[in-house]
C-alpha cells in the first residue's frame, strides 16, 4: 500500500507530457491531412483538367476605351419573351436569330411578334440544361441574297435551310472527325463566293452548356476550319485555339478573322496575298472576351465582348485563370452556373478598324440595361445587340451619338 501511493503522483505527472506531445502532433498533422484531403477531393471530384492561362495585364479603360454608358440608352426588345438571341442578323429588313431554347426565329418588329422558322432538334421541354443537346442550340448563321441560309446548331451540326421553301439539308454533325478530332461545340461560320464555309468549333471535350469548363480548362483544342460545298473537303486552317468563337470574312474575302475567346484576341487567317495560308494576330489583349465579329457599314468590325476585362488593383478572375489548381478546386466545389455570376456586371461592345485597332466602344458600366453581348450588327441608324444569355434583343439608335 505504502509503495503504491508514491507511484500515483508519478503517473499523474506523466499524463500532461503525453497530452502536450499529442497536441503538438495533431497541430502538425492536421493541416497536412486537410491539404491531402482537399487534394484528393479535388482530383476525384473536379470535372476539369485545367492548364494555367496567362493573359497579361488587362487594358486600362482610357482613350477609345473610356467608359461612356451609351449602352444604357438602348431598348430591350421582346423582353422576357426570348432568351439568348446569340447572333442576330438583318435580312431584307427583318431581324433573325437563334434562341436558347433551340428555336430559330424571325422578329417581326412592326407587329412586335416572334415567329419560329426552324427547329433542328426536338420541340418539347426545351430551355433546360438537361434537354439542351436534344433541343439543339443555333449559334451562327449566314443568309445569302437568294434566301439560302447556312446555319450551325452547336449540337446538331451544319445545315442548309431555304428561307422561302423551308427545305432543309444536313451537311455534317459535330461528331464528324476531321484530322483526328471531332468538332464538339460547333460555333460560328461565314461563307465566301466560292462556296467555302469557314467555321469554328470551340472544344473537343465540352458541349455548349458546359462552356464555362472550356473557359476554365484552357485546353486549346478549338479550331478554325473550312469546308468546300463543291468538293466536300475540309481543311484545318488554325488549330490549338483556346475557345475558338466568332468567324468573319473580310469584305473582299482575302482573309478570315476568328476570335479566340479565352485569350482575349482575334486571329487573321490570310486566304489571299503574300501571306496566304498563314495566320497573324489581328487584335490582342482585348478589353473583354470576344464572341462574334460582324462587319460595320463604314469598314472595320463590331465585336461583342461576353465579359469585360478591366485593369484593377486585383482582378480575381484573371488571377484565378493563371492558377490551374485553383480552377480545378473551384470546379470541384462550385456548380457550373456559379461561375458566370462571379464575372463583374458590365456590358461592352467594341469597334475595330481594318488594322485591328479599337476606335469605338459602347459601355454599360453596371450591366443594368445591356450585358453579356455576343454580337453587334448594324442596320441603318440602329445597332442590334445579341446575347448568349440575356432575355431580350438590344437595340440602340446611334444617329445622335458621337461615335
Ligand atoms: C468528341 O470526342 C470527345 C473525346 O473523345 C468525346 O467526349 C465527345 O463526346 C465527342 N463529341 C461528339 C459530338 O461526338
From TrEMBL:
Pfam families: SSL_N, Str_synth. The chain crosses the membrane at residues 24-44. InterPro entries: 6-blade_b-propeller_TolB-like, Strictosidine_synth_cons-reg. GO terms for cellular component: endomembrane system. Residues 187-274 form the Strictosidine synthase conserved region domain. Keywords: Glycoprotein, Membrane, Phosphoprotein, Transmembrane, Transmembrane helix. The keyword Transmembrane helix applies. GO terms for molecular function: hydrolase activity. The keyword Zinc-finger does not apply. Belongs to the strictosidine synthase family. This is DgyrCDS2567. It comes from Dimorphilus gyrociliatus.
